[in-house]
Amino acid sequence: MTNFPNDFLWGGAVAANQCEGAYLTDGKGKSLVDILPTADFGRWDALMNPKTAEQKTYDYYPSHESIDFYHNFESDLELMAEMGFKTFRTSISWPRIFPNGDDEKPNKAGLAFYDHLFAKCHALGIEPLVTINHFDTPLALLDKYNGWQDRRLIDLYLNYCEVIFKRYRHLVRYWLTFNEINMILHIPFLGGGMDVSELTDQAALTAKYQAAHHQLVASAKATKLAHEIDPDFQVGCMLAAGDTYPNTPNPADVLEALQANREGYFFIDVQARGYYPNYALALFKEKGIHIDITEDDKASLKHTVDFISFSYYSSRLVSADPAVNVETGEGNVFKSLKNPYLPTSSWGWQTDGVGLRITMNNIWDRYQLPLFVVENGLGEKDELTPDFKVHDDYRIAYLAENIEQMGLALKDGVVCWGYTSWGCIDLVSASTGEMAKRYGYIYVDRDNAGNGTNQRYKKDSFDWYKQVIATNGADLEHHQEVVQ
């Protein structure tokens, strides 16, 4: 028995800036990640001080070659088709289409690359799911406008959208406007192509919310434009999700968790409901945040999304007691208290499959719009054996638990269209620039310094996921004979 509908879209997810490589190839402009070193050389400091990083020269930039998906996409997609993928989530690199973001005409070579990529997907029976801006605002727009802090980026983004909507209307049906839109409050450089390092805390907070507003308006206008170009387009928003639990039943902790959850839901409230919620307006007033919101903006925001997509890696835990909150652990950018009921990965991320079910139910109850789980996975250190095997039982266990809980959410009554696990082929980490933190079913022979053959090898999880898809989520067991 399975809880998944027959048309459920199983697949995997990557991002152009983390896998394509081909730095400046065929007329591509610089991406945000193209100035970032690895963690060993201060990647996080570079993320927080991008204009300083732009003036430096580092020994190695992981994005410049990455796993070279740009030149290997056909064989990589064939491996995904072998697993039975129904859908493949990827992104279009905005600077590959408009190298400077505000160019008069698009880059023909960049357009042709995605022609080939999406056509190959269809030839293999795979439906593309395309993120329009996945932490990939052209670097030139940082230098010229300080990114999304400037209202002019709305029109530049819409010009980019119009080009790709018309170009790929017969190849792409599912679109996501911005990846993890709430991340702009936490990593404004990747999320918004902006540098707030020289601003006061108050000014930086205002700048980030102003940039977020511009993205929300751009998303709404892009949704309207998409439906005008092709009424069959399905346009979704994308949230870095994961419910925040209260540390204790103390009402103060419960309130703290409520406020933490609202910080992320604020974006989707606007995109799914078409207006700013009262709690957000109250927050702006309390924090002294003054945002330029025009009447045209308010009218534009009424163009809401068709579905809600999100990433989920783990839940979070928070306390209202500052002394307790000192003891925090790692997560997907978000810090969290250590939950004694949850195990952690090698990177300190807590794993919580039940949290996915809780998160899905809460998002569904809040919006009553179809969901799409577009990121979920376990980053771990994989060992390639002398006979080119990777025995990743830990990944299988994590994914099996999460998929089981996703199925139970569907049984609860949640409507969900599909599931694309993150990093279905190993790629460069967004936050650290590492290759060592691997998520994929496919091992790529490349290390943190860029050494290796770049060859691809199937992990044990490859055949396991193939079995999951073939049984439509009914068989989540790890059958050893499958990988012998």
Report on this structure.
This protein is an alpha/beta fold and 484 residues long. It is built from 17 helices and 14 strands. The chain is globular and about 60 Å long. The mean pLDDT is 95.
Number of strands: 14
Query: How much is the average pLDDT?
Result: 95
Total discrete domains = 1
> How many H/I helices?
17
User: How much of the residues is beta strand, in percent?
Assistant: 5-15%
- Estimate the helix proportion, in percent: 40-55%
**CATH 2nd-level architecture:** Alpha-Beta Barrel
The CATH fourth-level homologous superfamily: Glycosidases
- How large, in whole angstroms, is the Cα Rg? 21 Å
Distance between the termini: 26 Å
- What would you call the structural class? alpha/beta
The side-by-side strand order for the widest beta sheet comes to: 1-2-3-4-5-7-11-12
Instruction: Please outline the major beta sheet.
Output: 8 strands, parallel, barrel
CATH T-level fold name: TIM Barrel
